[in-house]
Amino acid sequence: MIRLFDLSLQLNGFPIKKAKAELDKIVCFSEEEFASFLEKKRKKLLIFT
To answer: 29, 37 in Cβ contact below 8 A?
Structure first.
């Protein structure tokens, strides 16, 4: 059964399956890979703003 929150995201066009796949990929990172991933995302965010 789909949760209400997931349903609202899906109705608003949020790609839930793609997001879950990305989360699964991130969860499998080693500690070093995760630290590198966070650093890249922080830099990307700073460049955006």
So the answer is: yes
